[in-house]
Task: inverse folding
């Protein structure tokens, strides 16, 4: 919370313009940082920012960067991210970030300028119907038509964004409304008869779930981002330990359960660990917590945990029975439900089950072979080892994203940030920037591929300007690697527009004013990562030139089952002829 | 075996097999509320047979009545998704309740001096009203259940319907469990 929060009452009752009310309202909400870009329709609000400098405004270089930064800030801190942009193109540039936040349930509030009310619908200069455009990708949105509604609308926007299943809210601010004056009064509470998320789980349902779980022999906890959103990592640990139940996480669940614990199975799904997917297919009890049975997790739905009874805990009633029919659904806040549930559970005798899983782990670990030719897996594995998991790692989308999810050692909630649902390339750099504004306790590392980095690299300027102590890693294989992998495996190796002509990334970073280096050899990796981690006073950039045609394994091809899972082939070697390759294995836990 | 739930948009849309549901939605009477609901049906690929909207007894609410089709899981999702919209106050699937419903149709039918009295007889049977007349046409107003209005229109078809407008179904839960 900002130190200014709740100290604004001396301003209540004063006559102010809409623009002043806007800034005062943000201070009331405890907003510390706003990511924005000015323009004609929002110029009045920017004028008000001159006198009210309590709020740190970060001038991004593209509005998409602002929305991703707000997402990164929100995911890293648990607070609501804030964006301020102008009308028309300013507003439409935020659309991808808004859609991303909607898919991944991230609380952000986007304020967009709008042409004056009387010009709306006239095809005025820089006019776009952003409320219409964002209706299907926001949790809710508003067009403020009267300055007297402004403070109440802002209060509601923050409330809706951050409660229930969180999500993005957009507030459209017509220029003339923001120039009108009224008495400032910030509502203490929100009362909306039409919006009351269910927080407490139904006791009867929790009892039913407990009965099922207590009878289980081979249980698995399948946990998603909801555990992190609900700050329920401790409750999850208590439950898993009590039951002695193995835990597999989704991409967004990484960090909610430490991978150093014997009960951890790592990530499941398309590129999950071999043993997590096998465990799910053999389990007799699946406890889904804050996860939504996404198609990248389930593959062919009919075969997903086909043997298991299923309990599903989620705050969003519409997430239940959307993809998979479960035996006991519980609607409520994950933290509260787990607190009640744990009391009704017995310690299960899972010794045999855990022994089987340990054996699977030993037989089919995450692995790769490393020789002189540098492989991305090695870089990300080393990143986990050097930091011991004590970093906020923000990935982009593609092969490097999956390799980071697999080979980094996840131990903290809110240490893994990525674009999961929408799969937005260009997410990492601006999202990591937002995370770096919110988190000073851990180093923030942006990991991108060469493709994704070039989609929002303009934010390098913002990062350097603010001397953010970020580590910026580009895993350069000269390809859009994931698409290339699919073309190789499923499209008869007919490569279509996946090879990239790239700039000199080191020179590029240096042109932005960021110290940079290139790593081409495995022996340099650890030293380079240490150098980046020790660098102070601003960002540090490393390009890792890795082997060009490498694949992510294990892999369950889209829509298929564990039976079709491709484990890491023995023959996958990237090294010169005759070169000795060392087997690298990620050790998840010491049983 | 895990029971899969396929998306509404990709299911077989064999209208005859999918049960009709009349869903009543009470919403905040706010700018764009109608768009949110219509947009939801479009985005998720749900069927709309009819959709009506109008004011209620309170100034700040509107009632929408949607007639839609789907199996139980789709209807469950429709109701959940409607409830998820911030402006939605209450969603009731009237299909499982006793309810009263009305549909209104305005039908402009071709008429000649020879057919006019026959048309008016049909109108009388359906308790429809003549609301406009010209040398070549009669315009009739009929209200009633959807089936009654359907039957009325069927009876007029042989005379050639020139234009027609229907409101779609409006419905309320029945309080008195009997006939009025």
Result:
């Amino acid at each position: 919370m900002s130190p200014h929060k709740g100290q604004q009452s001396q301003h209540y009752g004063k006559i102010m313009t809409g623009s002043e009310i806007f800034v005062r309202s943000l201070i009331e909400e405890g907003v510390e940082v706003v990511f924005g870009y000015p323009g004609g329709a929002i110029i009045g609000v920017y004028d008000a920012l001159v006198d009210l400098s309590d709020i740190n405004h970060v001038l991004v270089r593209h509005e998409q960067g602002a929305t991703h930064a707000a997402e990164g800030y929100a995911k890293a801190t648990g607070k609501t991210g804030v964006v301020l942009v102008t009308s028309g193109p300013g507003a439409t540039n935020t659309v991808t970030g808004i859609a991303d936040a909607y898919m991944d349930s991230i609380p952000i509030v986007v304020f967009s300028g709008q042409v004056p009310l009387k010009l709306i619908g006239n095809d005025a200069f820089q006019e776009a119907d952003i409320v219409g455009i964002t209706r299907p990708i926001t949790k809710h949105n508003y067009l403020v038509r009267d300055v007297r509604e402004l403070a109440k609308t802002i209060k509601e926007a923050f409330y809706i964004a951050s409660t229930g299943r969180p999500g993005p809210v957009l507030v459209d601010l017509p220029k003339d409304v923001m120039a009108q004056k009224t008495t400032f009064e910030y509502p203490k509470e929100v009362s909306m008869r039409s919006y009351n998320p269910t927080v407490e789980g139904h006791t009867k349902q929790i009892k039913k779930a407990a009965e099922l779980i207590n009878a289980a022999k081979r249980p698995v906890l399948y946990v998603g981002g909801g555990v992190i959103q609900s700050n329920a990592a401790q409750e999850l640990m208590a439950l898993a330990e009590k039951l002695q139940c193995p835990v597999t996480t989704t991409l967004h669940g990484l960090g909610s359960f430490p991978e150093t614990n014997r009960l951890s199975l790592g990530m499941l799904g398309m590129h999950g660990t071999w043993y997590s997917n096998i465990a799910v297919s053999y389990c007799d009890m699946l406890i889904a917590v804050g996860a939504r049975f996404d198609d990248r997790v389930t593959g062919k739905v009919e075969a997903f945990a086909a043997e298991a009874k299923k309990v599903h805990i989620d705050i969003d009633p519409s997430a239940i029975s959307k993809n998979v029919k479960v035996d006991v659904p519980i609607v409520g806040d994950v933290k509260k439900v787990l607190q009640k549930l744990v009391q009704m559970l017995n310690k299960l005798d899972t010794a045999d089950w855990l022994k089987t899983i340990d054996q699977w782990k030993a037989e089919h670990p995450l692995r790769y072979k490393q020789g002189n030719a540098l492989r991305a897996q090695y870089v990300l594995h080393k990143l986990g080892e050097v930091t011991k998991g004590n970093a906020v790692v923000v990935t982009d989308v593609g092969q490097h994203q999956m390799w980071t999810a697999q080979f980094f050692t996840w131990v903290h909630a809110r240490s893994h940030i990525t674009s999961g649902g929408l799969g937005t390339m260009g997410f990492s750099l601006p999202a990591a920037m937002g995370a770096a504004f919110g988190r000073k306790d851990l180093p923030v590392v942006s990991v991108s591929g060469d493709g994704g980095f070039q989609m929002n690299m303009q934010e390098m300027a913002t990062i350097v300007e603010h001397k953010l102590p970020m580590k910026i890693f580009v895993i350069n294989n000269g390809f859009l690697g994931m698409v290339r992998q699919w073309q190789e495996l499923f499209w008869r190796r007919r490569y279509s527009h996946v090879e990239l002509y790239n700039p000199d990334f080191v020179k590029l970073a240096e042109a932005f004013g960021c110290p940079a280096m290139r790593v081409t050899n495995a022996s340099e990796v650890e030293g380079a990562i240490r150098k980046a981690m020790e660098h102070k006073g601003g960002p540090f950039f490393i390009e890792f030139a890795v082997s060009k045609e490498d694949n992510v394994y294990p892999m369950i091809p889209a829509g298929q089952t564990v039976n079709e899972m491709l484990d890491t082939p023995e023959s996958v070697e990237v090294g010169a002829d005759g070169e000795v390759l060392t087997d690298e294995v990620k050790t998840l836990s010491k049983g | 075996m895990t029971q899969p739930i396929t998306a509404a948009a990709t299911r077989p849309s064999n209208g005859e097999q999918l049960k009709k549901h009349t869903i009543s939605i009470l919403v905040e009477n706010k700018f764009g509320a109608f768009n949110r609901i219509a947009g939801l049906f479009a985005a998720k690929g749900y069927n709309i047979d009819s959709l009506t909207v109008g004011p209620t007894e309170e100034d700040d609410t509107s009632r929408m009545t949607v007639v839609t089709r789907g199996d139980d899981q789709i209807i469950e999702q429709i109701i959940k998704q409607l409830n998820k919209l911030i402006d939605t106050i209450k969603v009731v699937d009237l299909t499982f309740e006793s309810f009263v419903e009305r549909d209104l149709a305005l039908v402009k039918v071709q008429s000649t001096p020879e057919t006019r009295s026959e048309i008016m007889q049909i109108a009388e049977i359906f308790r429809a009203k003549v609301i406009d007349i010209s040398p070549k046409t009669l315009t009739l107003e009929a209200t009633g259940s959807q089936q009654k209005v359907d039957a009325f229109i069927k009876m007029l078809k042989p005379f050639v319907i020139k234009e027609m407008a229907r409101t779609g179904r409006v419905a309320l839960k029945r309080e008195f469990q009997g006939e009025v």
In short: Chain B has four helices and nine strands. The radius of gyration of chain B is 19 Å. Residues 99-173 of chain B form a domain with the Alpha-Beta Plaits fold (CATH 3.30.70.1150). The interface with chain A takes residues 1-5, 27-28, 31-32, 35-36, 39-40, 43, 73, 76-77, 80-81, 83-84, 86-89 of chain B (CB under 8 Å).
